[in-house]
Amino acid sequence: MKDAGSQHRIRARLHRRQGEWDQALAIWRSLAEQGVVAAILALAKYHEHVARDYASAAAACRDLMARQPDEPAHGQRLARVEGKRARVTALLVLRDVK
User: Fold this and answer.
1) pTM summary value
2) Which pairs from 53-58 meet CB under 8 Å and 24+ separation?
3) Alpha-carbon separation of residue 85 from 1, 25, 48 (angstroms)
4) What is the mean pLDDT of residues 42-62?
5) 1, 51, 71, 87: which one has the fewest Cβ atoms less than 10 Å from its Cβ?
């Protein structure tokens, strides 16, 4: 039998696939508070790709790096997110100048 955390991750994945983001987010946030790395990663991906909230995505990446400092993918994700954040900021500044 699978543990409760695993069952929650499966439910979150189903909600994500059905586009039920609020339900998936609630599960990921609950698991993230318990330190479940897979949930923190899911939050980072959601904030980066769906919400395009790069500040929240970067915060999740930093949390991942703190929990798994030897995992290079977390640093790579953070660098990509920070790059996107910088580009969006630059575009907003240019838009305001016009």
Assistant:
1) 0.91
2) 54/81, 54/82, 54/84, 54/85, 54/88, 55/85, 57/81, 58/82, 58/85
3) 42, 22, 10
4) 98
5) 1
